[in-house]
Amino acid sequence: MAIIKPFQGIRPPKNLVEKVQSRPYDVLNSEEAKAEAAGNEMSLYHIIKPEIDFEPIAEETDPRVYAKAAENFAKFQKNGWLVRDNKEQYYIYAQTMNGKTQYGLVVCAYVEDYLKGNIKKHELTRADKEEDRMKHVRVNNANIEPVFFAYPDDAVLDELVAKYTASAPEYDYVAPGDGFRHQLWIIDRDQDIATVTERFATIPSLYIADGHHRSAAAALVGAEKAKQNPAHKGDEEYNYFMAVCFPASQLTIIDYNRVVKDLNGMTSQEFLKALEKNFIVEKQGRDIFKPAALHTFSLYLDGEWYKLTAKAGTFDDSDPIGVLDVTISSNLILDQLLGIKDLRRDKRIDFVGGIRGLGELKKRVDSGEMKMALALYPVSMKQLMDIADTGNIMPPKTTWFEPKLRSGLVIHSLD
């Protein structure tokens, strides 16, 4: 069962939300955040990327940066740019991209559910990134940014969400950075709050879609606070962390593609010939070619696009990890042919979210920065959930969810 609770959100007044809201901390660098926050003292970047308040920009892990985050969080509340709601409630957060809307419930998830595996993950985390986010949670005593969960569809919750979203939202704006629409409603009726809590209690598991490091950091800080409190009872606010939970059927995973600096000493012709061992290689010409089915790949090399189709016997349909296109391409192309064995650390490879389009792959190869590009067919939500259910971990850089959650719409205090 998934244990959740309502909470007193800390959020901007309606007339300030567009000033406060921001992209997540991990989708842009410090220079980009400084540019986006220029002239706007209310931007959440002053809390989630406070290194921008130093001249020159400070190192993200400098102790002064964490202290600045806490100072700015207190300042935002003192100035009324962030205000705590007067009761515990749930929220509905809708995102509209390319005419499609997905509706998430903003809740507090249970730390023990994460620690015991009821909140399921599909990616490994890095200790240094976990510690960075843990410091941020500790110093602010709050989850400033939500994590992104999926849950199996539930008709009762769908009906409740539809009832609220038929009325005018509390927030409704189009973000300047992504051009996507973001809306927020408040579930404040006691019976409806109880219904949300009760329905989640019938759901066996929640699934981390995006935000593995934030999830780990939030849960670990909660567990840390429990150990440090001699009067710990288990119902304290720090036992919970903020998440936006979407029905799995509403989510779309888009492609997450690769660009590589060299061909490991091979000429282009030698590389294409070597590919023929495990793939059917078909030249597609100079027009951008996008893979349209599982086990097909798009290769861009020397101004030409190629369709690669994995040959029968090169993958195992009964293996939830081995059947993934990211596994097939990692094993048979990146590792065997190009000698790239560690996708997390090898400097010869980089990754491009499909939201940028395949034109971005072409651009990086044509510029001479990269030698070749490989586009993959995206993973499905069913594949992700099957892998999480079996306790397996996906290879690095497998999933890209879009749109990203905007930060600053709701914050959860651990008090």
Walk me through what this model shows.
The chain is of the alpha+beta class. The chain is built from 13 helices and 21 strands. The strands form five sheets. Strands 1, 4, 5, 6, 8, 9, 10, 11 and 12 form a nine-stranded mixed beta sheet that branches. Strands 15-17-16-19-14-18 form a six-stranded antiparallel beta sheet, sandwiched between helices. A two-stranded antiparallel sheet has the order 2-3. Helix 4 runs parallel beside helix 6. The two termini are 25 Å apart. The relative contact order is 0.17.
In short:
By secondary structure, this protein is an alpha+beta fold.
What fraction strand? 15-25%
Alpha-beta content class? alpha+beta
Rounded mean pLDDT is 95
The Rg value, from CA coordinates, equals: 23 Å
Q: Residue ranges: pLDDT <50 for 5 or more in a row? A: none
Number of strands: 21
The general outline is globular
Helix content: 25-40%
- Number of helical elements: 13
**Distance N to C terminus:** 25 Å
What's the story with the biggest beta sheet? 9 strands, mixed
